[in-house]
Amino acid sequence: MDQNYDYIFAIDPGKTGAVCIIDPTTGEIEQTKRFSNERDLRNWLMDWSRVSQHVAFAMENIHPSPIQSPSTAGKMMENVGLWTMGIMAFFPRAPFHLVTAQEWQRPLNIKSRDYDARKSELKSIAARTYPDSGVRITLVNCDAILIANYACNNWPVGKLHS
Is there a cis peptide before residue 156, judged by omega within 30 degrees of 0? Predict the structure, then answer.
């Protein structure tokens, strides 16, 4: 890693997305979280902004798919907007990178093409990667955990958000 950040925040902004905070010097997971509403996200970001401003963000660069329902696509893009605004408001100087699913999943050599099987495989990989983390690894947070792992090992990742 070319910068010494206190934490890397890895965000899966999908419909049921989550965030994982990782310490890049130790590779240990500090926290994973899923938010039930905008107020919880705002308060959580505000609290973390008081812990450290020397952080970096890696968010999955997602796009709605034609096979998704309009409500699912809308929720995903709403989450992208909420995260983007929150990061810019509470961490104005933090590097904010967008990383594609293809980029962070490529080193994992995922075999499954079916969505449910793929998610199960990602959960298994996250559990094998962090067996002693003390974090309950679920289908909801496994993407954020693996994005954090990828960002920690390959910073800078993706493209800088402008």
Answer: yes
- For residue 50, what pLDDT is reported? 97
CB proximity list for 71: less than 8 A, separation 6 or greater: none
The label of the residue with tokens 């559990």 reads 127
Q: How far apart are CA 132 and CA 11, in angstroms?
A: 22
Domain at 7-160: CATH architecture: 2-Layer Sandwich (3.30)
pTM (predicted TM-score)? 0.93
CA proximity to 99, closest of 26, 52, 148, 31: 148
CA distances for 35 relative to 10, 16, 131, angstroms: 14, 9, 24
Of the candidates 32, 27, 24, the residue with the CA atom closest to the CA atom of residue 3: 24
